[in-house]
């Protein structure tokens, strides 16, 4: 059975400081997984940061509790996996889950399409007030 080679995570308030902390976790991860090709590192990092930024910018709290962000990233011999979760968040509207690129004059709406272009698979799960996007990139 193949095992995880490196793993990092983050849990905290969904804010701009979280994005910086997640960047730091990814930088540290690549030190432990130096065999991952640069192109895979860059594309996967971009996808994870884009998903985290979407949580910070767009997640709406379910109630009075603020939204929290959880990131779990693992490196396998031939696969990179990230679980990006928004805790205490409302379920996204179906329109928020569309992966098509908006028109060239649109100021937003490219996030999911960009993520899908950078990784092998994107899955969405919702359980107990938590929205989770699972990003996988085969290397």
Any key phrases for this structure?
five-stranded antiparallel beta sheet, 139 residues, globular
Helical percent range?
25-40%
| Overall strand count | 5
CATH C-level name? Alpha Beta
Amount of beta strand: 25-35%
Inertia-based shape: globular
Radius of gyration: 15 Å
Please write the string of helix (H) and strand (E) elements.
EHHEEHEE
CATH topology: Heat Shock Protein 90
The name of the CATH architecture is 2-Layer Sandwich
Catalogue the unreliable spans: 97-108
State the end-to-end CA separation: 18 Å
Strand order in space, largest sheet: 1-2-3-5-4
Please give the largest β-sheet.
5 strands, antiparallel
Q: Can you count the helices? A: 3
The number of domains: 1
* Annotated CATH homologous superfamily: Histidine kinase-like ATPase, C-terminal domain
What is the residue-mean pLDDT, rounded to a whole number? 89
Q: By helix and strand content, what is the structural category?
A: alpha+beta
